[in-house]
Design a protein that fits this description.
Belongs to the D-isomer specific 2-hydroxyacid dehydrogenase family. The protein is α/β, with parallel strands linked by helices. Helices cover about 35% and strands about 15% of the residues. It is elongated.
Amino acid sequence: MTPALPRIVVCRRLTPLATERARREFDAVLAEEDMTAEEAIAAAAAHRAEALLIGGTAKLDAAAIARLPGHVRLIANSSVGYDHMDAAAAKARGILVTNTPDVLTDCTADLAFMLLLAACRRAHEYDALMREGWRKPLGLPDMLGIQPSNKVLGIVGMGRIGRAMAQRARGFGMRILYNNRNRLAPELEQGAEFCPSLDAMLPRCQILSLHLPGGVETGTLMTAARFALLPKGAVFVNTARGSVVDEEALLDALKSGHLFAAGLDVFRKEPDYDTRFAALPNVFLTPHVASATRETRDAMGMRALDNIAAVASGRGPIDPV
């Protein structure tokens, strides 16, 4: 007799490749639109699901976790970040939690470096000028950007993505400073300078890039006081989480000229972000798409399914949180 397939609810839309696998290898309920927490709980109960594959729209706080039916054994996040859920509350109920920590490292670092270059070189303004018709030539002192080569780059959060960002920066001759919970081993530092105090590091950073998780533990890292510590004319890049930035303080720093420019992929409220950023010419914006390549989004869905398959087979999770 053929064993029953593991029952799962896929709470977010996946790429065609991952969707086909979910249909083939699991007894799966597949979301037509990304589910909210309430929809995910209802679907899990109706399907008697053993696992949920979720994304950021299914915000499973402690109250939502408490309402999950007892047959849910695993919550598989199809992303590296899991600040949209209360992992501690899940674990307290005996529910396993996984993420996808390796598959989007290079993709995220690629976009972060794109934001860095675009902010330094006024890409938004140049693009707007061209789309308006560009009929007046630019002279030597006009619309000058900042040359990123050989600048001092500060990285906050020297995990996989932070280290990948540093590797890209080395190709531009940048000097790397980093602030992290713990100092890395020399073979991981690769010449980067550890700064145990963020406040002491910031005045030395010509460019600052965030690569740390959001959530209660991190809180609002970049406040008005910390933006003020950056040297005048610095560039700010964020592909981490919008929750770690005081956006009013960031807007003030950009409007006043204290910051030369910013490259932003994440915001405190998504997708209903503060459109005052869009009105500023010195901000280059992307809509939380650091992992948005065909290769990476396939890999994210597949890795989440790998975790579900591993748990269902009794082997245990591959990427436990």
